[in-house]
Model the fold of this input.
Amino acid sequence: MDRSLEELWSKRSSDFWREAAPYIRYMLQSGFPAFLSLVGIALLVSYSSFLRQVPEHYPIALTGAAALLPFVCWSPLRSWLVSADIVFLMPRESGMKPYILRSARRGLAVTSIWTAVAFIAFLPLYYKGAALVHPLAAAAMLALLKGMHAYAAWIERRMTYTAARRMYRLLRWALTAIVLVSLFTFPLWKTLLFLLGAAAAVYAALKLPRKHGFPWERLIIEEARTRRGYYRFFSMFIDVPAAGTVVAKRAYLAWLSALVPYRRRSTYTFLYTQTVIRTETGGILLRLTGLGALSSYFAAQSGSLDGWAAVVLCCLFTAVLGMQLGTVRHVHRYSVWQHVYPLPSATRFQSLLKVARAAHLLCAVLIACFTVVPLTLQGLWLPAAAAAFIVILYAAVIAPYRLMARMAKEREDD
Done:
């Protein structure tokens, strides 16, 4: 690699982590690691209890494929590129190959570690089934898949059209899911034959779309998205520098904003509703709700700790939802429109509380349903009632009260 480009890569990487170090320290002091430890212990207890009583016809192969698929297909690329590089670095495009290879190696190493952890966690369940493939051979197959995905993801980044990139990514994930199910179901040679055929078909298909020589804009967009993700996470613990937001349409949630009355005093209610629905906050809430519902459901189904493990998970995810919704208070706080357009600023706090409470209740109740119903069907009435009561109390009363206290303190500071 060109010495100057190598120094640029190292400098930008070290600058980012040096800038993030204080926020990481605040995060570590916040008790969040202890919360993660509790979640990990609860999941470990639930998993151990489930392993002791795995149903006879449980779909082990499907479970393993579903657990490993995100890790195998995950191919991030920290390029450290910024918008100004289109002007100042593009003339050196011919020498960028070693630069981007260093980013690719770093991303492949990190995701391979997470894939190995997920595979090791799956092994006890794998041995409950037929286990036709030796774990070392399966690990080698996963390593081969990781390398293929890293290459295919780079080709997708170079594609000119977004629709083509999404279609090929969907095809890649679908074929990988089939390969993983085959790996845990059939002898290794059959899986290898299918993998070779699928890889040849995908390789030929990747030749068809138009591509850029070097995807500057795509890499810059991905880098900006990654930075926003880090700072959005840090914003749950301390104020961080503002970063640009990405707006998502989410047509399947657009009907919620239509429920807001069309009147002047509901202006901020509409703004915060759109903020929760269309920004990255809404995406995080959806993912947390889905993960919390699945985790609580499996813990409730297994009956771990007489159902109380599911209650703990349900309450923990409800608390995390409240932490995430607390970050919405920074949005529109310094909006210039309140000085240009006569917005009803007196209703901003009430509108924020109303929207945060409604969103929190909706997501928390969905998680609680996946906890309460399985527990009730098993006759575990007390844990089911406790989960429903705690979730509703926290989402409807405790979380809004804490949010109101934070906003009052910030109002005094302003």
User: Anything to note?
Assistant: The CA atoms of residues 72 and 144 lie 10 Å apart. The chain has two domains: 3-226, 245-413.
